[in-house]
């Protein structure tokens, strides 16, 4: 038999097709939750937020609010029919404050009214009598008070104390990094629609529909099967809707329950920023022992995270920070201590990188300090410490690094940019300019892929083939702009060998695919793609049986290719076979399931194999600072990013560029600032600055590592991409340190924390000048 000519389908695996909603996004036709037409009788809700960082709630009087025009209900913790508990990691984390408020912005009540204006006006009329208590506002105060939201975590190997004592050189120091607001364009929002009896449908802008389902069920005291959660898309999430969306959905559901009407709760930007969690700010203290070549012999580092008022996702974030504080370096004698500090500020949560960025900032600062102290190039010190291949490759958490391509990434970057020449140009510029100073730095990255909670590494999908050959696809992942839906659809198109436009992705719904994990940890396409593939394989197997019978050939001779099914030189269209299968009473629907292999974790010892594989990258950045004003610009960024065999290079390119710029924002302009009363003063776009289009480096070259398929059998050998490139922005932070160091002829270590705002850069310049002057 002659094999069919392998012709291509449109939009299969590895095709650089555009986002399925690209046109919808720019024309406004893509429907976000708030664009859905309201059912008649829908109420709008507004939150009542605590004005105190810490206070006892003595009395709540809703009479004035209830008497206001249009108001249908006021809900407080006492109205919860079930359990006022939506904690994602630990129990005891209420949706509405109960007895005590623990941060400025803590939701205490919600008002549901006929219109949004009425709800917001009446929210001001809820009278709450507070007895203020002393707040703990900083990491230092929390450490002094021994106040933690969860257990202190330690990751260790070898003999750090002995190695430190024996090391020929030893340094200790401190560095801080700030938090970051997610600044998704679509704020937190939920619409709860009561149905028959106990049923309730909740439309939620969430990365974690199943957790919303559970949270709503807990609060209402109903079984999970009474709650259906649906999300078509989010207008950005970045981790901010992994657990925080549940708060909003649970409050909307409670108000819907009480009024028996649909209730929509959407937060104005200022409330969103005050009431919901952000990236964790960290205080890092290190004690490092090294030799004259820059080999790190011993390292003892404490990473203290500002958890805010509750645990939320802090335990996971902290462990990921500790599991990334090695970055690309083999640290045989090391102790990382993680402190989840409880403060009276909003509970911090998942944010792109999930602790990884903070852990990597810590070790990169240590490397920077060691290199500058020795007067050696960063790159040289790094090379002395890189994980080896086949040796020197066990991480502090006991996973062996088996897929090491660090030096390949760094090598491709250095080959592409001619680093020595670039460095010379920068030095020449700095000699010629007194006020403006340039800096240059590189960074390598290694990011662990998989949820660091093994259980979460599972996914489901549901695939239907209709008799016209069109395919309906559903899976547990959510779309937040990252292109997950198109990627999984590409996987299905490839597997069936049909054009992408025959595959229709549908809204994520807990009634279609149950018990899902959050779309997070960059694992969306890895796990949902594999689940979808598993579903397709079952249907294909059945369809192949029908085709084999029809053509009178063995099943093994049936080939799916180019929208057709071939048996030698005979064929029929995919649609014809779908129709025929139905006639033969063969099911054209299947659910698929996937769990990530190889991973395990022992939370008692903080060791195991938490990551299925690593994603690698390298970057170089050039910056300029104005030593009179502290202002800075990123002039050039050169990136190399490992995407495995990219499922969709167009999407991945966007992810790399977006993540890098978001990382730049974290490290430069985005500053969260709380006053002495614990009030967040940067709670809107006028005071909280995210990078704008003019902050994108004028020279910005992104390279995806070529011919680098994942060595693990992931979906079409691709790699996760959502988070890793954010950490490439550490090159910008290190370049800013380099620019500051140039003021003192690279003889001193700069004192610069993140974010490197103009104020901090100016202070670092003044400080290094003063130290240089003292000789
Ligand atoms: N890209 C866009 N456009 N919007 C987002 O909210 N979130 C990021 C990343 N890229 C995000 C994004 C985060 S935090 C994660 S974990 C991944 O996307 C999640 O999606 P994935 O697992 O499908 O990559
Ligand atoms: N990333 C994001 N969310 C998570 C993780 C993680 O590693 N672990 C648990 N929730
Ligand atoms: Mo991303 S922080 O894992 O949602």
Would you give an account of this structure?
This protein has 775 residues and is an alpha+beta fold. 30% of the residues lie in helices and 24% in strands. The protein is built from 19 helices and 29 strands. Strands 3-5-1-12-9-10-11-20 form an eight-stranded mixed sheet. Strand 10, helix 6 and strand 11 form a beta-alpha-beta unit. Helix 9 runs parallel beside helix 10 and helix 10 crosses helix 11. It is globular, with a radius of gyration of 27 Å. The structure holds ligand MTE, hypoxanthine and dioxothiomolybdenum(VI) ion. Ligand MTE binds next to helix 15 and helix 17.
Largest sheet: 8 strands, mixed
Q: With helices defined by DSSP (H or I, 4 residues minimum), what is the helix count? A: 19
Strand order of the largest sheet: 3-5-1-12-9-10-11-20
Structural class: alpha+beta
> How many DSSP E strands?
29
Distance between the termini: 85 Å
Helix content, binned percent = 25-40%
Sequence stretches where pLDDT stays below 50 over 5 or more residues: 1-5
Global outline: globular
